[in-house]
């Protein structure tokens, strides 16, 4: 096993730790995933995986394949045990994200395709961020932290570095790190006197 494959295997291990922590928290009733966010991430991870394979990312693409598969499982958990308060803004975010997918299909330049995928993926955080604003205890930062490290190791596993292969995992490192920080910040504010604003 060469260094790229080793990094990919470690990235997958971190991703599975992320999902394991998340599944455990859902089953214990602590985390209530927002299915709209996870549906966006599932579809976009699948597209990102296909784009990385097409651009010869090698082992660096493996973690995206595992990620997309597990995202679909969380979508099901979200429908069964997740957030029930679906707002109009959540629906608009979902429709906007899914309606951008045909644009991705029409984009023939790999770089623009990946940029569009990154924008759609990032929009997927909005429904969960809205939920966390009022219910910070219903989301666990641990899964996002593991996902950020998994994406970082998937960057190291890429064989052919170009904007089309490294941009998406780099954005995932940033967005998952920021999401974990956002959850921790709101949890801290929730236990302070005065709590969170309504």
Q: Which key phrases capture this entry?
A:
9 helices, 198 residues, mainly alpha
Short description:
With 198 residues, the chain is mainly alpha-helical.
Total strand segments: 0
Largest sheet: none
Summing up helix and strand content along with how strands pair, one would put the structural category as mainly alpha
Along the chain, the helix and strand elements come as HHHHHHHHH
- The helix content is over 70%
Distance between the termini: 53 Å
Describe the global form: globular
Radius of gyration: 17 Å
Low-confidence runs (pLDDT<50, min 5 residues)? none
Tally of alpha and pi helices: 9
Query: How much strand?
Result: under 5%
- Average pLDDT metric: 84
Tally of structural domains? 1
Give an overview in words.
By secondary structure, this protein is mainly α. It has one domain. It contains nine helices and no strands. The protein has helices at 3-27, 35-54, 62-81, 88-99, 101-106, 110-123, 125-134, 141-156, 163-191. Helix 1 (3-27) runs antiparallel to helix 8 (141-156), helix 2 (35-54) packs antiparallel against helix 3 and helix 2 packs antiparallel against helix 6 (110-123). It starts with a helix and ends in a 7-residue tail after the last helix.
How would the blueprint of this fold be written?
Layout: H1 3-27, H2 35-54, H3 62-81, H4 88-99, H5 101-106, H6 110-123, H7 125-134, H8 141-156, H9 163-191
């Amino acid at each position: 096993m060469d260094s790229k494959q080793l990094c990919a295997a470690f990235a997958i291990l971190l991703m599975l730790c992320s999902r394991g922590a998340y599944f455990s928290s859902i089953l214990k009733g602590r985390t209530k995933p927002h299915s709209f966010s996870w549906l966006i991430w599932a579809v976009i991870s699948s597209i990102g995986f296909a784009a990385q394979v097409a651009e010869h990312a090698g082992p660096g693409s493996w973690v995206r394949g595992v990620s997309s598969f597990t995202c679909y499982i969380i979508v099901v958990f979200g429908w069964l045990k997740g957030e029930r308060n679906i707002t109009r803004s959540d629906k608009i975010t979902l429709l906007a994200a899914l309606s951008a997918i045909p644009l991705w299909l029409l984009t023939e330049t790999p770089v623009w395709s990946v940029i569009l995928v990154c924008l759609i993926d990032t929009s997927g955080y909005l429904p969960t961020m809205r939920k966390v604003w009022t219910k910070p205890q219903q989301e666990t930062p641990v899964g996002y932290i593991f996902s950020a490290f998994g994406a970082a190791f998937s960057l190291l596993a890429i064989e052919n570095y170009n904007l089309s292969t490294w941009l998406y995992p780099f954005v995932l490192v940033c967005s998952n790190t920021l999401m974990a920080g956002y959850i921790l910040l709101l949890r801290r504010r929730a236990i302070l006197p005065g709590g969170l604003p309504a």
